[in-house]
Amino acid sequence: MRNRLYLVKFGGSLITDKTKPYTPRIDIIRRLVDEVKEGISMGFRIIVGHGGGSFPHVSASKYRTHLGFVDKDSRYGMAKVHYDAAKLNGIVVSEFLEAGLNAFSIQPSAIFIVRDGEVEDIFIGIIEHLLDYRMIPVVYGDVVIDLEKGCHIMSTEEVFKGLSLHLLEDYDINIIMCEIVDGIYTKDPFKFSDAEFIPIIDQGNIDEVRGYLSVSHGIDVTGGMRHKVDILFELAKHGINSIIINGLIEDNLRRVLLGEDVRGTRIKY
Amino acid sequence: MRNRLYLVKFGGSLITDKTKPYTPRIDIIRRLVDEVKEGISMGFRIIVGHGGGSFPHVSASKYRTHLGFVDKDSRYGMAKVHYDAAKLNGIVVSEFLEAGLNAFSIQPSAIFIVRDGEVEDIFIGIIEHLLDYRMIPVVYGDVVIDLEKGCHIMSTEEVFKGLSLHLLEDYDINIIMCEIVDGIYTKDPFKFSDAEFIPIIDQGNIDEVRGYLSVSHGIDVTGGMRHKVDILFELAKHGINSIIINGLIEDNLRRVLLGEDVRGTRIKY
After folding, report:
1. Counting Cβ atoms within 10 Å, is residue A215 exposed (0-12), middle (13-18) or buried (19+)?
2. Is the dihedral of CA A27, A28, A30, A34 positive or negative?
3. pLDDT (tens digit, 0 to 9) for every residue of chain B, 269 residues total?
4. Contact flag B107-A104 (C-beta cutoff 8 Å)
5. Would the ipTM clear 0.90, i.e. be above it?
6. Which helix or strand (DSSP H or E) is residue B126 part of?
């Protein structure tokens, strides 16, 4: 039997105050770290990935880094976004170390090269070895080399995709996404009281769900739910199942790791 | 003609206060960054590497990380040393960004895998692309995966060696080592007033120099001069010349980059 590997995401909106640049929500990070600790104590391999939230946001938007190299300042922008994203990563890793866990930061920009956003090359060695050592690789949304656009903001979901497609042979992989909502809804639940919760996304309703997430009245509050669902559904085709849960609710992550039933949107094929 | 590439080292003893844990010498870092800026403005490609000084020292010594995995706490030690080394790297990169330079941190642990300290695998892509972009990769002494010992503390010199042997085909490489002494002496210059300065190390005197650096009355104050000389002489065989200069002296680095004559120990074949 293959070993179980969890890829756990701490959403950027969850672990930072999106209204204030460079402001981590330490209490939440600390609680999530404690919940991860349960999974580790159960012998699971875990890779943690986190979004950047309000850390790289200012510089990424100033230098329009999501567009790649657009003008003479783009390279400086790439450098600044990389630095800002790493800064939050340092805070997250520090909390893991405080909790006595062997967390080891890995820069996605050092191990991925992409072309127009799609992975062209990957150096998976360090990740494989850290998992063998029963350590916790901690990755994050980062700006990576793009052979077409110059650079590319690689989301945590894209990093998870790149890693898991290379680890699939050796591990039984599950993804847990901790966000600031319970999962996917038919409309933006923060704006529409008639938004309906979607407990499962699979072949039966994926097109319908994509429709909900495409409509312009903005379900995008949590940083690109359409982007997340597209990637997670693609991974589901490879047998990698995901659940999106509300990381604001204490014990949600811990309970999923323990195999308990938690409110969330499950994505499978 | 091949492009010129400088590998510039900021010694750990130079950029931190070795007597106080986690204490950077910001004024010196800032000045060295300004001096690097001159080289950049002349169109040179530059990779910066720095030692860890008093940052990873406490944890590396506590967990005996230089020995590899020795007990049940070694993995935690590896994680802690990695974090502490990255912390100083963040400070250095921050000063480059403040000076308007496109500095981009790369974790050696993400791109190198070694066996008993010797490079077994390297992912050079990110470094090559950053140089093509005329950006400044910033590397540092880090703890890397060792297939034999578990982990290995890879010095900045070892990182430089690993990188330069892979970049040799495309670049004309020179190494500039900024330390806290003028270069190599026959004895520890801090302890012996009759220590004689050695301006050049080459085939003619390398064995003699190794003899000086091996004697037990401790020339090792600046963090392993023997280790440095061994690696730099090996690189000299590949046509990569080095100079060790005193980074405490203002303008020394800038003047070397401008091609001026500076007091220092030159290492060639």
Report:
1. exposed
2. positive
3. 689 999 999 999 999 998 899 999 999 999 999 999 999 999 999 999 999 999 999 999 999 999 999 999 999 999 999 999 999 999 999 999 999 999 999 999 999 999 999 999 999 999 999 999 999 999 999 999 999 999 999 999 999 999 999 999 999 999 999 999 999 999 888 888 999 999 999 999 999 999 888 765 444 444 588 899 999 999 999 999 999 999 999 999 999 999 999 999 999 99
4. no
5. yes
6. helix B125-132
How many Cβ atoms sit within 10 Å of the Cβ of residue B1? 4
- Would you call A129 an interface residue with chain B, using a CB distance cutoff of 8 Å? yes
DSSP one-letter code for A16 = B
Q: Distance from B247 to chain A by nearest Cα, in Å?
A: 26
User: With an 8 Å Cβ cutoff, are A113 and B129 in contact?
Assistant: yes
* Kind plus residue range of the DSSP H or E element containing B118: strand B118-122
Query: Chain B contacts of A145, Cβ < 8 Å?
Result: 125-126, 129-130
Residue A92 has, within 13 A of its CA and on its CB side, a CA count of 32
pTM of the model: 0.96
CA distance B50 to B31: 14
- Tell me whether B152 touches chain A (CB under 8 Å): no
Q: Looking at chain B, which residue has its C-alpha nearest residue A88? A: B90
Instruction: Please list the helix, strand and coil fractions of chain B in percent, rounded to the nearest 5, in that order.
Output: 40, 25, 35
State whether residue A107 sits within 8 Å of chain B by CB. yes
B98 at A interface, C-beta within 8 A: no
Mapping DSSP to helix (H, G, I), strand (E, B) and coil, where does residue A174 land? strand
- CB count, 10 Å around CB of A185? 21
